[in-house]
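Pipeline run #58 for the internal structure catalog. This entry was flagged by the ingest filter as a single-chain record with no existing model, so it goes straight to prediction. Upstream metadata was stripped on purpose; only the residue string is passed forward. Reviewer on rotation: M.T. Logging verbosity set to normal.
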Amino acid sequence: MLCSLLDTSFAMRPLCASLIYVLAVLGLEAVMQKECEIVGILQDKLKYKERLYYMKYYFPLNYTVTVQYEEVLRTSNVSRLRDEAITEPSLRYLWFHVSSQVVLKIRDVLPEQHPSWSYTQELCDLLEGLGAEYEKYKQGDMDVVVADLVKRIHDAEAGSNRKPVRPKALLDNCIKVMRMLYSTPCKWDCA
């Protein structure tokens, strides 16, 4: 392709392969940079005070949202998936889908006049922007385990066990897993 356009000589092939590798890495880094930018804004929105304010103080005492078992993504789940050799892009893809569904479920229980509605709408908008970045990934590049989990998350008829979870706990899990998955590639200091 690119190499055949440049030169077909045997001596140029290693140089051409190196060039293609560098271009691929730069392309991946550009995509990751946009992801990091969006996730950085999301991290600011998910600060502890905001989660406490909008997801606890504005909700009735012991209020819960019913979610599928797969929509409770904890750092321990991610560690287990890492042990099963699931790739980091697949784990970030899974985190995106779980977080999107959780935020939508929280927003859907709120009337538009509720003080937390605009906050959850902002989170939805940021996740939608991240979703546009994830559209660039090929579905075939995702691990089978992750593809199956994402399918179950989006299939309301999957018959998965459901569990009641407090809205703040859902967003606590969201940011903990996000920091776990993005701190290294985005060069965050999560201290």
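catalog note: The radius of gyration is 20 Å.
catalog note: The mean pLDDT is 82.
status: ready for reviewer M.T.
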